[in-house]
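HUMAN: Mind making up another protein with tokenized structure?

ASSISTANT:
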Amino acid sequence: QVQLVESGGGLVQAGGSLRLSCAASGRTFSSYTMGWFRQAPGKEREFVATIRWSGGNTRYADSVKGRFIISTDNAKNTVYLQMNSLKAEDTAVYHCAADSTGHMVFSYWGQGTQVTVSS
């Protein structure tokens, strides 16, 4: 029903920036909540940020507040994650996800994009 494709990952030095993109296709609705999650080697997947397609109701994990910005471009059906002041602990595979339930249950996931921050 919904396909999500992430891009924009790569290698960056600590203190640098990256912008991740999540292109959505298929049967998407304006009521869907979009989110970014990440999983570092040997660790559980963790919440990073969420947003409505309208651009409202943004939420962030404490670990990224003030550094990351989640945004949408409705015309392009794309969600972005601007990552600034990157730290080594931000290294992870970042996944885009969509929630169609309204209860923060993310049923649709992209394949992920690797972000590596070097010290």
In short: The chain has a mean pLDDT of 95.
